[in-house]
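Database export, one record per block. Field names are fixed; values are copied verbatim from the stored entry.
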Amino acid sequence: MNPKIIGDIGITVAFIVFSGHMILYAVTAPWWRSMTGRSVMALVAVLAAVLALSAGTLWFGVQWPARLWLRAVIFWSIAVAGGFLAVAHVRQKLGPWREARRAQKEEV
């Protein structure tokens, strides 16, 4: 078996799986209601986009229309999704501390 063909099929299957998950999550879960849900959606979306870019390069070659612009948008989206994840993590860790501090102020 040719490892290039196996890898190409793997990228294509991963693209289909993550795109399918993103669509199912978007339709079936209220992801927009929480920071965690928005972070998960952003992370899955950028992973599906990176896999789409990789699959597109496999299918159409290195030079195809709008590839460089799409690449730029996708990688900046990764930076934004990473920011969402960092903010969600900080909020989750600081939440109990802020609640305890509020309760302490109310007691005084």
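Remark 1: The mean pLDDT is 88.
Remark 2: The longest helix spans residues 67-107.
End of record.
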